[in-house]
């Protein structure tokens, strides 16, 4: 793969990671005390022009 491709993909994935973390942290703050709770999370990645639908699921533990 070309260096331009690799750099653009890394930039996109970094933006996804940073903005997703910020959104989750904001949701946890708004929810208040979430200690002892677990939240199911899902991310669906699609790319226009490519036949891609990539799903990532996981669990996020709450906090107080």
Structure description:
- By secondary structure, the chain is of the alpha+beta class.
- The chain contains one helix and two strands.
- It has one domain.
- A two-stranded antiparallel ribbon has the order 1-2.
- The chain is elongated.
Helix content: 40-55%
**Broad structural category:** alpha+beta
Q: Between the first and last Cα atoms, what is the distance in angstroms?
A: 44 Å
Succession of helices and strands: HEE
- Mean pLDDT across the residues is 96
Rounded to an integer in angstroms, the radius of gyration calculated over CA atoms is: 15 Å
Q: State the total count of DSSP E strands.
A: 2
Low-confidence stretches: none
Give the count of structural domains.
1
Main sheet record: 2 strands, antiparallel
Enumerate how many helices there are, as a single number: 1
**Beta strand %:** 25-35%
**Oligomer state of the chains in this structure:** single chain
Q: Strand order of the main beta sheet, please?
A: 1-2
Shape: elongated
Record keyword descriptors for this entry:
single chain; 64 residues; alpha+beta
């Amino acid at each position: 793969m070309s260096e331009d491709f690799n750099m653009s993909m890394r930039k996109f994935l970094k933006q996804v990671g940073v903005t997703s973390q910020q959104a989750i942290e904001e949701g946890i703050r708004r929810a208040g005390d979430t200690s002892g709770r677990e939240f199911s999370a899902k991310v669906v990645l699609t790319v226009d022009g490519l036949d891609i639908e990539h799903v990532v699921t996981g669990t996020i533990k709450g906090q107080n």
